[in-house]
Amino acid sequence: MKGFKKDGKFRPTGNKSKSSLKKTDVRNKQTVGVNEVNKLIRTKGTVDEFNKRQRKEKLDREYDYFLQGMNDYGTGDVANAISFADEVDIDGRELSDLVREQAEQLETPLEDVDINYIIYDHVLQMARNKIDSVLGFDFLNDTKAGGTEFYTAGNYMATSYDYSEETKEELQKKFDDATPDERQEIYDDKFARVFLEYVDIDVKGVT
Predict the structure, then answer these.
(1) Is residue 62 part of a domain?
(2) Spatial distance between the Cα atoms of 3 and 7, rounded to a whole number of angstroms
(3) Is 136 helix (H, G, I), strand (E, B) or coil?
(4) Does the predicted model carry a pTM greater than 0.90?
């Protein structure tokens, strides 16, 4: 009879029944399950962080909108003034302090102050002081060309520097005659550098 041997004992002839899952398979499934849970936790944390960032950005925008609605400055004027101030590493808080200080000195209501004129003129005056200290030349008062000297033409977000070509050429010559060290010292000053770039003065040999 199938399954019986000569000694009369039964021996199964079919394949031994095996579980469809080996121990290693079970461990793998358990590991996968833990990984899925950890991934879910990480994902939820990421989603929570993203939602918090989104809310903070929204509140920041609403904060800005509120302040814009509470003052009389145009948003373009504010953006332009902040952008120019950033070029000389003046942040928003410093700019607001500068505007308040100038308004007090001019005895002008804060809402009537041209904030772009103030930051442009501040950069002009700081550049003037640096150039004068190095070259001994006050380009606002010492020019001899007879043209219009450098000045800040205030016009809100259209504010710019104005000057005659004769005056510009005279300042350019001062830089051409300066030593390399003098030119570098002036160019290393952030106010002087920004001003010179805006009025297209070529400062040779600087890095």
Answers:
(1) no
(2) 11
(3) coil
(4) no
Tokens of 65: 């909108």
Q: How confident is the model at residue 51 (pLDDT cuts 50, 70, 90)?
A: confident
Measured from the Cβ of residue 122, the count of other Cβ atoms closer than 10 Å reads: 21
Q: How far is residue 70 from each of residues 37, 56, 74, 79, measured CA to CA in Å?
A: 49, 21, 11, 16
**Distance in angstroms (rounded) separating the CA atoms of residues 1 and 73:** 105
| Mean pLDDT for the chain overall | 84
Dihedral sign for Cα atoms in the order 70, 74, 76, 80: negative
Q: How far is CA 106 from the centre of its chain?
A: 31
Residue 33 falls inside a structural domain:
no
Domain count, the chain: 1
> Which of these ranges, 10-14, 47-51, 67-71, has the smallest mean pLDDT?
10-14
In a domain, 127, yes or no: yes
Task: List alpha helices for the chain, DSSP H.
Answer: 23-70, 75-87, 92-106, 115-135, 165-177, 180-187, 190-198
Q: 151 is in which domain, residue-wise? A: 71-207
> What single DSSP character describes residue 110?
G
* Residue at 102 is within a domain: yes
